[in-house]
């Protein structure tokens, strides 16, 4: 039994040891099922596909939930093999509250909850939760881990620049509201409504559904767009430098230092 | 009395000494009130909230003004504790014209002025001035001080690149006016009106309310957008390098220099 | 005969040796014909030019195909002069499947195929293939080779960041679909339809044909635009550094190294 | 007479010597008149200002032309003081074809030409030429000289990346034309018409007057916007590095070099 648990653990986790082949096959199968789930979630919202392949969508959904449930229970059973969760009860409880286990749980929970929910609105919202299955793939994705690391490292600077953007957005939208409200009371109806203009102007999206028409408003709108470009240069610069640092680090695992000045060679 | 003045001074300013606890509590309270003011300013423009919580908005406005007025008077009283403003009269006068004191004054002045103003248009404009309360938070914000430093340091380059943008905007809008005016006399009605197109094209916002329709105008519009991207690369590059320098500086407080080449290690 | 083959080979390829003059003349002629082909492909879609110069377009097309066919056959004949394709049969076969030979083939093949095709839809699609002629110029273009090298070198990072963008696009569009579908069932009709909004929001194009109207949707739309700017900072940063490295390399062909720290001087 | 010529020369040019005061006054006057001209050119296109101040605009135009004409003739007279144009006839002729003298000439020539022109269309176009007066200010502007230097230095890379953009624009627009033409024959009427879409999509302006509606067209449009961001990263990166190099150079006029490795200290 304990031997079997070890075997299952090695299969579920990506291991580099003896049972590497089985682990690789299982994890490729898992990625395939998750990807198919993402495609199914996207395509089942297209009316014609939904009608044509209704049976297929339901069957695949059922199969996915059963597969993910068995996998979740197996992971819970074998997690004690990991030194971090070695206690038979407290270890398993702590594992259940780890980020990856929560994501795994959120991928299956909505299905079981919707069986008992009678309110259609709740069922609709629960469907949205199925997108969490896509997050499961992030465990395998270098990209996702990279972005996590960069964001974690540059957290302080990013919060700082986000605060600047929000600060700027409030100021610009408040001024614009007082300038444009008399001319377009239906569009610039309140400061929160004007903030929608503010965010599309500062990010230079500019859908065109709301824009100033008075000369003063246009002047302010022009300055906002120019300032917005400068303001977004900040997080862009932070992220670019963060990503570059990481990419450089990954490429040069070992480093030498000049004996004279201590700089890297 | 002098002892009390010292105590109040230490509470108002963010101090690192003995009375640190009281100073922290007061400043957190101040930040909370300022943030609530920002939320109130934004939300009171939403019709339904304004009707529902009319009483609350007025009461909170009154409370804020009284709080800020007392705080302003206290600051004026204790500012002489600061060596920069030590003279009992001239010191206080000079303090009144410091940037932070002016912002504090602009946060309360509109309320008192509006009590005597009978013209509704002026009262409306004065309401706009309440946003200055939000600027008060900038005293605590690293972000705001950072942007101030970067802008101050790179002032010359930013003026230079702003001049370039304005120069380019006038040239492009003038040429576009002569090209598009005959085809769209109502939209490209004058060079100032065309400059609204120019600024949305160069910043790539592109609301879609005004755009060239003649082949020559479209060609010019395409070139403008391409040149605009290049032109805005300048202030973006300046600000990115400015922010990066500051962030780097803040992280490495002390520096050593290589004895061979004098470069930083 | 063998002497002639050598002569033709040296004329077709850009050689630096004796017959440089003839080779230069031929290659300039080839670039001119390709450029004229590009102009013809673009202009023949303009109704009035197509009617006015119908004869000219057909004649030039015929001339181009004959010229490219003769050139293709000549290249096939002389390719054995190249050491890589020296075998009289297998060398020529391998040459036919080289990238440049395939591009040459695709530039003439549609014409011959359309002579036998009776289905008009296929003939239309084949016309599109004529744009491949433009790719032929890439052989002479430093720009094209530069972009190929940069993309090849930074392949891993670019795939990684493209995955991130796609991942983000699916998540954002799925959430937006559930938020906006009830309010605008005709525009946000399905997740794939919402992805068109997602891509225009994240790239800040913002045509304005589809955008959120509910408060929650607008908030999500604003966050998407802000995140999109950060997300696109990644490939931009990768490409900028890639291009800069190449441009720098091309300018400094030889390098010296400091004997003390081994850094480039 | 010769003494007077020297005096006039020193006044017209920005000199650092004895007559510095007079030169400064004259050049400030010149900048003021040029700036007023720019404002007049912009404002006279606003219908209501043009009617109200018609007399003023005409008088100022007359004054400006007389002032610039006298200045042009004086410059022509005194240019022989400059060693470069010392010959009394050939020197003056060569001066007339220098960039700055041509700009000066283009600033006054349209007025004299329009006196004899009877065709109104030509007079309209000549009015456009008055914007050249604004270019005269570039002589004083560091910004203008900076951009000239950067563009001159990075010429090769900029041509290369512009070629890439044009190349990409033709390919993308050709494919989009064949994809969208059947669905929107009036908007995507020809490849040149589709190139207007292409340029607004690649620069992310997105006016919304023209955009794909078919699923395949939308997919292609999304890819175009993503590729466009990458493509414009190239000239942006080139210009940013070019400007940064210049700004850095201007700040460090003198440099020392480490005796060990020859790097700048």
Automatic annotation (TrEMBL), chains A, B, C, D:
Principal cellular location given in the protein's record: membrane
Top-rank taxon: Bacteria
Gene3D superfamilies documented for this protein: 1.10.287.70, Voltage-gated potassium channels. Chain C (1.20.120.350)
InterPro entries in the record: Ion_trans_dom, VG_K_chnl, Volt_channel_dom_sf
Presence of the UniProt keyword Transmembrane helix in the record: yes
SUPFAM superfamilies in UniProt: Voltage-gated potassium channels
Molecular function, one GO term: voltage-gated potassium channel activity
Membrane topology: Multi-pass membrane protein
GO BP terms, alphabetized: action potential
Keywords in alphabetical order: Ion channel, Ion transport, Membrane, Potassium, Potassium channel, Potassium transport, Transmembrane, Transmembrane helix, Transport, Voltage-gated channel
Domain Ion transport: residue ranges: 25-247
One Gene Ontology term, aspect cellular component: voltage-gated potassium channel complex
Pfam families: Ion_trans
This protein's record includes keyword Cell membrane: no
Subcellular compartments: Membrane
Transmembrane spans: 21-44, 56-74, 95-115, 158-179, 219-243
Protein name per UniProt: Potassium channel protein
Organism encoding this protein: Spirosoma radiotolerans
């Amino acid at each position: 039994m304990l031997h079997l648990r070890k075997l299952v653990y090695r299969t579920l986790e990506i291991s580099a040891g003896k049972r590497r082949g089985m682990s690789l096959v299982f994890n490729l199968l898992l990625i395939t099922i998750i990807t198919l789930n993402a495609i199914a979630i996207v395509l089942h919202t297209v009316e014609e596909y939904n009608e044509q392949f209704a049976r297929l969508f339901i069957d695949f959904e059922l199969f996915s939930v059963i597969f993910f449930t068995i996998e979740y229970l197996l992971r819970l059973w074998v997690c004690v093999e990991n030194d971090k969760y070695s206690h038979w009860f407290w270890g398993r409880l702590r594992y259940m509250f780890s980020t990856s286990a929560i994501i795994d749980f959120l991928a299956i929970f909505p299905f079981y909850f919707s069986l008992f929910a009678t309110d259609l609105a709740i069922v609709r919202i629960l469907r949205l939760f199925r997108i969490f299955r896509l997050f499961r793939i992030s465990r395998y994705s270098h990209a996702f881990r990279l972005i996590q690391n960069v964001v974690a490292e540059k957290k302080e600077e990013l919060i700082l620049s986000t605060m600047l953007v929000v600060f700027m957005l409030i100021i610009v939208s408040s001024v614009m509201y007082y300038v444009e409200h008399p001319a377009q009371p239906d569009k610039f109806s309140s400061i929160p409504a004007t903030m929608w203009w503010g965010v599309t102007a500062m990010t230079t999206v500019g859908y065109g559904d709301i824009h100033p028409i008075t000369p003063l408003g246009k002047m302010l709108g022009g300055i906002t767009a120019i300032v917005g470009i400068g303001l977004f240069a900040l997080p862009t610069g932070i992220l670019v430098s963060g990503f570059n640092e990481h990419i450089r680090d990954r490429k040069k695992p070992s480093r030498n230092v000049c004996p004279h000045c201590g700089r890297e060679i």
